[in-house]
What does this fold into?
Amino acid sequence: MLFSNATEELKSRFFNKVGATDFSNDKCHIWPAAKSGMGYGYMQWQGKVEKASRIMWSLYNECDIPDGMEIMHLCDSPSCVNPAHLSVGSHKSNMRDMIRKGRHRNGSKVKTLGYVNDLKMAAI
Ligand SMILES: [Zn+2]
It folds into this structure.
């Protein structure tokens, strides 16, 4: 319920951090504030830590992320918050997308077919 609960304070704090409001160009906008070890941007708001990409998607599209859905990075850059590079997908399709691109945790390449199968099982 990110968007429904969003306040003007959140919007101004968020876009101040992003440092841009024009995303018409195609380049990645890298989140400049807190990042996880995996490179995802995070922002604390109302005592909760939320992914920057989720905040961006909600605010930009003016709608809540459907329950159980995740924000996928079409550009494969976890720190990117360019709304044109974000799309909504299920956890399963997110995992499938990562496998298809040969990417998983830490950004290293998937090495063995067995490992790919393990990931597929984990995603089901
Ligand atoms: Zn990007």
